[in-house]
Amino acid sequence: MLEGKALVEDTDMPLKMQIQAMSSASQALDLYDVFDCKSIAGYIKKEFDSKYGNGWQCVVGSNFGCFFTHSKGTFIYFTLERLKFLIFKGASSSTST
Questions:
Q1: Domains in the chain, ordered, with CATH?
Q2: Which of 5, 22, 43, 92 could, after both became Cys, cross-link 28 (CB 3.0–4.6 A)?
Q3: DSSP 3-state helix, strand, coil percentages of the chain (rounded to 5)?
Q4: What's the average pLDDT block by block, 10 residues per block, for the chain (97 residues)?
Q5: How far is residue 72's CA from residue 61's CA, in Å, rounded to a whole number?
Q6: pTM for the full predicted model
């Protein structure tokens, strides 16, 4: 496991889920090269899909922008080592015509 501490920048996740997010990120960094952001994100997504049901999204990198809609209580954005982690479960938006 990595010695570095995660810094949560924003979240609406329950604490237990936040801990799982940071733990999954740390495990992924132990398994993959720090520059292999796609594999790191895939690992975390699969962990969350397995534990909390399908529909999770994960973005990993050092410089990215995003705009998304998420289900309440499923969002976290944190830094671990040199990388930023964005994990959320997508929400469908209903439109009326």
A1: 7-90 (3.30.740.10)
A2: 43
A3: 35, 25, 40
A4: 75 96 96 96 97 95 83 93 93 55
A5: 24
A6: 0.86
